[in-house]
Amino acid sequence: MYPFRTKLPSAKLLQQLTPPGWHHKSPAQLRQLADAVGRVRIAVIHGTGDDMIDVHHGRLLAKHLEPAVVEIIEGMGHAPIMDRVPWLHGWLEDRIAVVEKLEPVT
């Protein structure tokens, strides 16, 4: 039925799919956002095993934002908080340490 694999019940699947369909930023808007907050504060993480949003979209987002960090994780699904808990905790600690040293955005 769906062009991807999922273990979510239909209602939960719909809840997950609705926001990405409504949110749209042009490449120019993404660059403006990145300029406003600073690219060093931005990270894009996407798993190649994401059944909800294809990794192509993560790569496209990274292309337009040009963030400081891009992580394309082989085999990781849609929810790193569930798929890669220890990795995500370490990654967040590292990113927070970097961002805490930055000047506040005004």
From TrEMBL:
InterPro entries reported in the protein's UniProt record: AB_hydrolase_fold
Gene3D superfamilies: alpha/beta hydrolase
The name this protein goes by in its record: Alpha/beta hydrolase
Native source organism of the sequence: Colletotrichum graminicola (strain M1.001 / M2 / FGSC 10212)
